[in-house]
Amino acid sequence: MRGRMLMIAAILFSIVAGSAFARSEKVTRFATEYGSLEATLTVPETAGPMPIAVIVPGSGATDRDGNDPRQGLRTEVYRHLAEGLVEAGIACLRYDKRGVGASATPEDLAAPILASVYADDVVDAMKAAETVNGVDQVFLIGHSEGALMSILAAEKHSPAGLILIGAPGRPFGQVIHEQLAAQSIPAEVLQRADEIMTALVRGTPVGEVPPMLAPLFPPRARPFLASILAIDPAKELSHLSLPTLILHGTTDLQVSERDLELLEKADRSAEVVDLPGVNHMLRDVGEDRAANLATYKDPNAPIDDRVVPAVVAFIREHRK
Fold this sequence. Notes:
alpha/beta; globular
């Protein structure tokens, strides 16, 4: 179903553009099994029922806005996305994932660091979104690793629709291997990375970690890695039966066309939007790798103007 959504989006956005909603924004917290997580709730000032989108952040210490200061990541991508959706009358809840930003309280950090816990956090975020005054439907937007967490969460608590952006379609071990290989690291280091990931999945001792790989396999993160490496996103997606939109940028350095193919095969009814020239951070960078990487540190760069219309069209199409 590729391409169809672009036409729908263009038609719809021509209707809603120019009549942006005023909005209100507040910081809030929602309860989980382990403590509470801090979030930003942005709501359009509109009469009548409205949908809400929960934005699930990607890998690492990525916060509610799409930043990770420890890694030098400054994108504001989720803030830009939320602002665009609210202007179209769609409320947004975006949150600091467990252990990140304002969600790093002792209670939050007491939770086991496992993929299942992060997925449960997404479920709790959806339940919190359901209680927002005026909201009648919840849609889930997962970006990067957050797309996998969204798939897992949707198996436990079904949203009105699922939107996957920059989503992996292969087990994370394969994705990590490909990303490391693309960095032209020494063959022996790449082999050692594969051995470490195999050990984590099997629950056997990891052994010595080369300095080059230390940031990837810190001791604290190993339980989480062990829990996520063997998960097959495409297989998990095949278990779902709900409206799904997949956005794929053709210059995404984190996931590939192969990931998209596997997700499409897993869900034949999914609506797919190809975004030529768009990267993992939803910016149009063309084929210039340097420009691509520069957007990871440019919070002021606007997201591509095809992204919000596609998401808005999908949500409007699947309103009940």
